Sequence to fold (195 residues):
Amino acid sequence: MNSFFCDSTLQKSDAGDTYEHPDRSDKTQQAIHISELYKAHRHALLLHLQAVVKDRDIAEELLQETFVRIAKMPAISVIQQPRPFLLKTARNLALDYIRQQKKRPTAELDEVDMEFVSQEPEHLDVLIKERRLKQLKQVVTDLPPRAKEALMLAKYREMTLKEVAREMDISQTMVEKHLKTALQKCRAALLSEKH
Fold:
């Protein structure tokens, strides 16, 4: 917490609750008054903010912002009942914060919203293809190592079965077996996505 609101040195006069501040400017007087308000109402305001935003760190930030706002107001010392005024200011800041958070979609919501933004068939086709590609990549990642290697060589490096067999140092029959395993898993993943 900024020490601006906490650490002001105050000296009481013998008259009671009034403070003596000889030769101090109006800004200094206001800073001292805000510091007094902070000390007197910090705990109640923090509890109130936590009840609204349900997060202590956010409540602390909003409490700080409340007093930053109050510090910018001229003649704050003339307010007769500062506690309700401070509570109202803090509550407004908390409600503004909540509204801003509701406007910010989460990453998951961004993806869902993106799907429904455009009703064009081409857009939906692109999304479907992207999902299938992502699913296929995951299936290929999860393949047994030899099946994955055979698939990569045959499909992406465009090698013949004979070349794959030579590269992997296995028979062409084993290459066919590995490819069959890989293709069955890919096909199963695509079929399950349609249902």
About this structure: Residues 50 and 58 are 8 Å apart (CA to CA).
